[in-house]
Amino acid sequence: METVSRHWRLILAGFLGWTLFGVFFALQSYVNAAYVGQPLFFPGALISWLICGYDWALLTPAVIYLAQKFPLARGSLQRNVPLHLFASVVAAFLHLSIFIAVQQTFFRNPQNHDSFWQAFQRLSVVEFHVDLLTYWILVGIWHLREINRRYLERERETARLAIETSQLETRLAEARLNALKMQLHPHFLFNTLNSISVLMRDDALTANKMLVKLSELLRAALKSESSQEISLEDELEFLRAYLEIEQMRFQDRLTVDFQIENETLDAQIPNLILQPLLENAIRHGIAPRAERGKILIESRRENGFLRLAVSDNGAGLQSSANENGIGLKNTRERLEKLYGEQQKFEIISGASGGFEVRIKIPYHKK
Questions:
Q1: CA 353: distance to chain centroid?
Q2: Structural domains of the chain sorted by starting position, each given as residue range(s) with its CATH number in brackets
Q3: How confident is the model at residue 223 (pLDDT cuts 50, 70, 90)?
Q4: More confident call, 180 vs 156
């Protein structure tokens, strides 16, 4: 149905185009005659030019068919150009013949006694080369239309491939992010269970409390695992639950200070982005020391960015193990994949001790 509708639209467009052709040249003939002072009957001129246009309307499908069947493409020019030269001569003779036949049959001037052959000879001198040119113009228009059609098809195909590529890249990035995030759960779980195992020998009651807190913490982690980003407030709530477990182990040796700007609480951050930083600070900054340790967690908004920092007053970066651990490496990769060049991940270790991780990401809300 759509093909039939398109077919009739093309026929109508061709008919209107050749009608405009007839009207245009009839007006031109009338204006030229008026300019040089020669009398010209406009309706007669209009009829002649409309006959000329409609004759070409009859021949156009055949010309288009030949242009489509024998395109002037690279590799076929030597074969198809002579064919079109011959076809243009035939089309010119046919056009002149049809024009004269219609005019003498239906619109013959009583004062004109020319025979068909005489009229053909007279018009051939004036119109034959014009008809040749008209044929080649039609062939050229068809080729331009084909070039435009192929260009649009390539554009649509390019756009389709770009969309598919973008979708594949998005799915791949999501898969990588999920894989990175999933690495945190067994890593975090292993370290926590290790802490509980240590306590089991000295304080079974505290170890039991830690197991209960751990089950609550894992439930909270699994509940939010489908989200790539959560609010900073939710992340801090998870950190406090995690700290309850760690403080059962370290007692007074562990102090955590939160310096959080209120306007940053609803900012969206990667899920579980601070927990491995806090765990790293406890494991490498607090655990190796007998004296009290302090961890500071900060957030502030600055020039459209959210700045986060986790620092401790431990021994600092004693070896590359801290910097290349699973937690820090995982955090760096997740930030790169989520924010590209809009993020910044810094590790700072003071000469006299202390270890700090700074994160800078775009500030945005849900």
A1: 48
A2: 2-162 (no CATH), 203-362 (3.30.565.10)
A3: low
A4: 156
pLDDT in tens, 13-30: 778 888 888 888 778 877
The rounded distance, in Å, linking the Cα atoms of 342 and 346 is 13
Reference 364, options 275, 277, 270, 298; nearest CA is: 270
pTM score, whole prediction: 0.51
Residue whose pair of structure tokens reads 């990667």 in the numeric block: 270
> In 226-282, which ranges are continuous DSSP H helix?
232-250, 275-281
Paired sense of beta strands 254-260 and 293-302, if any:
parallel
State the average pLDDT over residues 204-231: 75
pLDDT over 90 at 7, yes or no: no
As a whole number of angstroms, the distance between CA 85 and CA 135 comes to 9
H helices, E strands: number in the chain: 9, 7
CB atoms within 10 A of CB 3: 6
* Contact status, residue 135 vs residue 56, Cβ threshold 8 Å: no
